[in-house]
Write a structure and sequence with these properties.
The protein is of the alpha/beta class. The protein has 2 domains: 178 residues, Immunoglobulin-like, CATH 2.60.40.770; 312 residues, Alpha-Beta Barrel (TIM Barrel), CATH 3.20.20. The protein has 12 helices and 21 strands. The strands form 4 sheets. It has an 8-stranded parallel sheet. Strand 3, helix 2 and strand 4 form a beta-alpha-beta unit. Helix 5 crosses helix 6 and helix 8 runs parallel beside helix 12. The longest helix has 17 residues. It is globular, with a radius of gyration of 25 Å. 45% of the residues are buried. The N terminus is likely disordered.
Length: 551
C-alpha cells in the first residue's frame, strides 16, 4: 500500500469518527457520511513558494515560432531585440519554458511571421514548420497564445494587402483546426506592426472593414467554443459594428460562452499600466486608466467572460509599475495571462519592474485592504504570525483561475449497483475563469492504482467566477458540485480512492495529466498513472461493499 493511500485511509477513519450521526441519502440506504474540510497551500508546504502548474493560465514566455532551423533572426532573449542571432531552433522556447516550470508556466506566446510571403502564398515548407512547432508544443505539455503577423516594427515600408491576408488565412485554417487542442487563444493579429492593428505600411487599419473581415474569418476558422483577442477594446466595438457583422452589444453573463461573436473576442493589453493610458489602450482623456473612461469601463464589463492577456512595456517605458497596483488591475480586468518577457532582467539585460516585484514583500494586511483574494494558509498557518509573500509570487499564483476545494461530503461506505452521492464546494481564488471548455469527472481508483470507473458530471467550470461581476466588495463565490456516481454492480468489494478529474476537453490530450487542472489545496494529493495519465485530485476514500477491514 502506498504512503499516500495509507494517509488517506487514516484520514477517512478519523473523519468517520468526527462525522458520526450525519447521513446522506444513497440509494435506499442511510449511511455514515464523511464531511471533509480542505485547506489552501502554505509557504511551508512542499513547493509552497513555487507556482502551481495549471494549463491555460499564468505567466507566459514569448518567442518566434515556426522558423527554419538555423535561420538568422532575433533571439528569444529580449536584450537581443533588433539584433540577429544564428541557429533558430524550437529548442529556444522549449528550454525557456522548462526553465520557468517553477513559476507554474504552461503557455508560450508565439509569433509566426509571414513576412516572406507579402505578395504570394505561404510556402509548403513554412506550413510544415508550423505543424512541427505545434507538435512540439503538444510534446512539451504546453499551449500557445498564437499570433500571425507580417510587420516587425512601426516603420516598415512594405506589407500585405487584405486579399493576400485572407488567402493566407485559408491556407492556415486546416492547420489551426487540426491543432486547436494546443492553441489557448488565437489572437486577431495579421494587420499592422507586430499584428497589433496599428502602423501598417498599407494603412489597412484605417478601414474598419479590413479588421472586421479578418475577425469574421478567424471566428469561422476556429471552433464555435474558441476565442480570439484584440489589442484595444475599441477595436472590438469597431468590428462588431461593421455592417457585415452588425452584432454590437455589451457581453453579459447570459450571452457569455455562446457562439455569437461578442462572446468570442477578448483583449490583449500590450501596454499594461504603461503611463496613464496603458500604452494607448484607453486614449480618451481626462480619466484615462480609471473607472469612468468608456474604454476602461467597456473592458471592466466584458473581461469576466473573455480571455485577457497583458504585457508591460519593454524596459519600463512609461515608468516602473508597482506590483500591488498591478495585482489590483489584474483582478479587476480578470487577466488570465501575463508576459514574463517584458521588463524582466532575464529578458532585458538589467532589472526592471518584474525584478522589483520579486524583491518587494506583500503582506496579508495589504491584500485585505485591496480586497484581493486570500487563500487559506497562503500567508502562513496562522493569522497571528503571517508570512510575507512577494508581489511577484502573488501575481504569479492568482493569474487566471485558482480553484480551491473547501468541503466535500460523501458516504463512507456504499454497495455495488447503487448511486454514490458526492457534494463539493469550490472557491475560485484567481483573477479570472477557465476560458476554454472543460469537462468535470469523478473517478474511482482501486488499490492497484487502476481507474475502474469514470463518471461525467454536468458541472461547468467556465461559470466558476471568483466573484460576482460588478461586486465592488469582490466577495468570493462558493460553487457547488452535486452528483450521483452510479457504482457498477460488478465492482469488486474494497477501498477505493475518490477523485475529481478536470482534463482537457480535447480527446487528443485528454489523458495527458499535464493538461488537467490541479486544485490549490495542500491536503488534496495529485494522482497520475506511472505513465503520466489522468491527473486526478484525490478527495479521500470510499468502501465499496465490505472489505477485509470492515466485516
Amino acid at each position: 500500500m502506498s504512503f499516500v493511500r495509507r494517509i488517506l485511509l487514516g484520514l477517512a477513519a478519523i473523519i468517520l469518527l468526527l462525522s458520526r450521526g450525519q447521513t446522506l441519502q444513497a440509494g435506499e440506504q442511510n449511511v455514515p457520511v464523511l464531511d471533509v474540510r480542505y485547506h489552501g497551500i502554505r509557504p511551508i508546504d512542499p513547493d509552497g513558494h513555487n507556482g502551481l502548474r495549471n494549463p491555460e493560465r499564468g505567466l507566459r514566455i514569448e518567442t518566434l515560432f515556426a522558423e527554419a532551423p538555423g535561420a538568422k533572426i532575433w533571439g528569444p532573449a529580449s536584450h537581443l531585440r533588433g539584433k540577429t542571432t544564428s541557429g533558430y531552433s524550437d529548442d529556444w522556447w522549449l528550454l525557456d519554458a522548462k526553465r520557468y516550470e517553477p513559476f507554474g508556466l504552461t503557455i508560450a506566446q508565439t509569433y509566426c511571421y509571414l513576412d516572406q510571403f507579402m505578395d504570394r502564398p505561404i510556402s509548403g515548407e513554412k506550413l510544415v514548420l508550423l505543424k512541427q512547432s505545434l507538435d512540439n508544443v503538444r510534446k512539451a505539455g504546453l499551449k500557445t497564445l498564437l499570433r500571425f503577423a507580417y510587420e516587425k516594427g512601426m516603420k516598415q515600408k512594405t506589407g500585405p494587402n487584405i486579399t493576400t491576408i485572407l488567402g493566407h488565412m485559408d491556407q492556415l485554417a486546416p492547420i489551426i483546426r487540426d491543432n486547436v487542442d494546443v492553441i489557448y487563444v488565437l489572437q486577431a493579429g495579421f494587420i499592422g506592426a507586430w499584428g497589433e492593428w496599428h502602423s501598417s505600411s498599407q494603412k489597412l487599419e484605417s478601414d474598419h472593414a479590413n479588421l472586421a473581415v479578418v475577425v469574421r474569418k478567424l471566428l469561422q476558422i476556429l471552433p464555435e467554443n474558441r476565442m480570439t483577442q484584440v489589442r484595444v477594446p475599441k477595436y472590438k466595438r469597431w468590428v462588431l459594428s461593421d455592417p457585415q457583422i452588425n452584432t454590437f452589444q455589451i457581453l453579459k453573463a447570459e450571452t457569455s460562452f455562446s457562439a455569437i461573436p461578442v462572446s468570442r473576442i477578448g483583449f490583449h493589453n500590450d501596454g499594461f499600466l504603461a503611463n496613464k493610458t496603458c500604452g494607448g489602450t484607453w486614449p480618451e482623456p481626462p480619466l484615462f486608466s480609471s473607472p469612468g473612461n468608456p474604454e476602461f469601463d467597456y473592458m471592466t464589463d466584458e473581461s469576466p467572460y473573455v480571455p485577457v492577456d497583458g504585457e508591460l512595456f519593454w524596459a519600463d517605458i512609461g515608468g516602473k509599475v508597482d506590483g500591488l497596483q498591478a495585482a489590483v488591475r489584474l483582478r479587476l480586468h480578470h487577466y488570465g495571462t501575463l508576459s514574463l518577457a517584458h521588463s524582466y532582467s532575464e529578458r532585458e539585460g538589467k532589472p526592471y519592474s518584474i525584478d522589483v516585484w520579486m524583491q518587494t514583500p506583500l503582506t496579508l494586511d495589504q491584500v485585505r485592504m485591496a480586497r484581493l483574494p486570500i487563500s487559506d494558509g497562503y500567508f502562513g498557518s496562522t493569522e497571528s504570525d503571517p508570512v510575507p509573500r512577494t508581489q511577484f509570487e502573488y501575481i504569479r499564483d492568482h493569474l487566471g483561475y485558482r480553484f480551491e476545494l473547501q468541503r466535500a461530503r460523501w458516504p463512507q461506505q456504499i454497495s455495488p449497483g447503487t448511486n454514490f452521492p458526492v457534494e463539493l464546494e469550490i472557491i475560485n481564488r484567481g483573477f479570472s475563469l477557465l476560458i476554454n471548455p472543460r469537462v468535470v469527472f469523478f473517478v474511482l481508483i482501486d488499490a492497484s492504482g487502476r481507474v475502474v470507473h469514470v463518471q461525467k458530471t454536468d458541472a461547468n467550470p467556465r461559470t466558476w467566477q471568483p466573484f460576482k461581476p460588478g461586486d465592488i466588495e469582490f466577495t468570493p463565490l462558493v460553487h457547488t458540485i452535486k452528483t450521483q456516481i452510479a457504482i457498477p454492480a460488478d465492482l469488486q468489494h474494497g477501498s477505493y480512492m475518490v477523485g475529481l478529474w478536470l482534463p482537457d476537453a480535447a480527446e487528443r490530450i485528454r489523458l495527458d495529466a499535464r493538461y488537467a487542472v490541479r486544485l490549490a489545496d495542500r491536503d488534496v494529493p495529485w494522482w497520475t498513472t506511472k505513465s503520466g495519465e489522468y491527473g486526478v485530485n484525490i478527495l479521500g476514500n470510499v468502501i465499496i461493499g465490505k472489505d477485509e477491514n470492515n466485516k
